[in-house]
Design a protein that fits this description.
Largest interface: A-B, 95 and 103 residues
Distance between the termini of chain B: 26 Å
Number of helices of chain B: 7
Structural class of chain B: mainly alpha
Radius of gyration of chain B: 19 Å
Number of helices of chain A: 7
Helix content of chain B: over 70%
Structural class of chain A: mainly alpha
Order of helices and strands of chain A: HHHHHHH
Largest sheet of chain B: none
Shape of chain A: flat
Number of strands of chain A: 0
Distance between the termini of chain A: 44 Å
Helix content of chain A: over 70%
Oligomer: heterodimer
Strand content of chain A: under 5%
Number of strands of chain B: 0
Chain lengths: 173, 185
């Protein structure tokens, strides 16, 4: 049990620090490690885990399911901490440097330069996500409709998302 | 760097707990902005964008990094822990439960009907995230240069599917150069 938990910790801590741009970046590698290297679960189980975790963000929480399959609740929790603590510590370090800088000129310049990059990334990652999931004409229409409604009206997001879900059930079944 | 209203630790925890609940189905980035910028006013859009940009440069789940970055900004190291715990408590509990159900019955709980509903909510949630980007762009990216930077990133990652790291390696220095040029004039 202990060696297994250690293996889980090492595997996911390494993936945590390699996940540039988010957890999705290491999904293929995670699948290879979990399915082919360690045989914690089958390829089709991994796909089911992916489907389950996608509905409950952050998507990287898929590691909890993989760890849970490998070694029960203890395995799930170990995978959770291994996946999120190393990267969170890095984020904390960056935050400390950033906020200690106060009104330093380099920070103001960087903040100004980051704004268009962040705006671009928010929109781009939405488009990339829509294209990587099995989007049909109906779900594309829902995505586009939600984008327009939530960009230009004050409707509550939950109402719009609920309507989207019901539309897909009614028309797509 | 004065925050318009101060965030107490319990309030910070409650806000991230709420974000963890409402983002079930998707749209986490958009929910974080809605709660912290629009509803609470603890940070403004510019600070949100700076934190968002930093969250992308640190490896790991970007929205979790974003929570840690904002938590640190508002309440230091304790704030980081509180934001992280608040955000993760509900999703982690739900997934452990769903995982238990799946491994007992060996199929996805809820079946087809639930999956269809989640596909619809997920599609709408993507729209929520994109709309947040558009709102942020309308107020914070107005001059030609920055608009071109944002557009290049949208085309590069969204349409051409170039890896994020490569896009950042080109566009971040480009944006930095542009900023320095504009400030120098």
């Amino acid at each position: 049990m202990i060696p297994l938990l250690l293996q889980i910790a090492i595997t996911f801590a390494a993936l945590s620090l390699l996940a540039f741009g988010g957890g999705a970046a290491v999904l293929p590698d995670m699948q290879r490690q979990a399915v082919e290297v360690h045989h914690w679960l089958s390829a089709s189980e991994f796909l089911d885990m992916f489907a389950l975790s996608r509905a409950i963000p952050p998507g990287s929480l898929i590691v909890v399911l993989v760890g849970q399959k490998a070694a029960g609740i203890a395995g799930g929790l170990m995978a959770f901490f291994a996946m999120f603590v190393p990267s969170s510590l890095l984020a904390f370090g960056v935050a400390r440097l950033w906020h200690r800088a106060g009104r330093a000129v380099w920070r103001e310049v960087l903040e100004q330069a980051l704004a268009p990059v962040s705006v671009g990334l928010t929109i781009a990652s939405g488009i990339a996500l829509a294209r990587s999931t099995e989007h049909t004409w109906l779900t594309y229409a829902v995505t586009a409709g939600t984008t327009v409604l939530l960009s230009f009206t004050r409707l509550h997001p939950l109402a719009v998302m609920g309507a989207g879900a019901m539309l897909v059930i009614a028309l797509g079944g | 760097m004065t925050n318009r209203t101060s965030a107490s630790l319990p309030a910070l925890f409650r806000s991230f707990l709420l974000i963890g609940c409402t983002s079930i189905g998707g749209g986490l980035t958009a929910w974080i902005r809605r709660e912290l910028v629009e509803r609470r006013g603890w940070i403004d859009d510019q600070q949100f964008l700076a934190n968002y940009g930093l969250s992308q440069m640190v490896p790991g789940a970007t929205n979790v990094n974003l929570a840690v970055l904002i938590g640190t900004q508002l309440r230091g190291s304790v704030g980081a822990v509180v934001a992280f715990a608040g955000l993760m408590l509900v999703p982690l509990s739900i997934l452990l439960t769903l995982g238990g159900l799946y491994f007992a019955a060996h199929n996805v709980p809820g079946g087809r009907w639930v999956n269809t509903a989640l596909a619809g909510a997920g599609a709408a949630a993507i729209g929520f995230n994109v709309a947040t980007g558009i709102r942020l762009g309308r107020t914070n990216v107005r001059r030609l240069g920055p608009v071109l930077v944002a557009a290049a990133i949208i085309v590069g990652i969204g349409i051409l599917r170039i890896p994020l790291l490569e896009v950042l390696l080109v566009m971040l220095p480009a944006s930095l150069g542009l900023t320095l040029f504009e400030r120098g004039r």
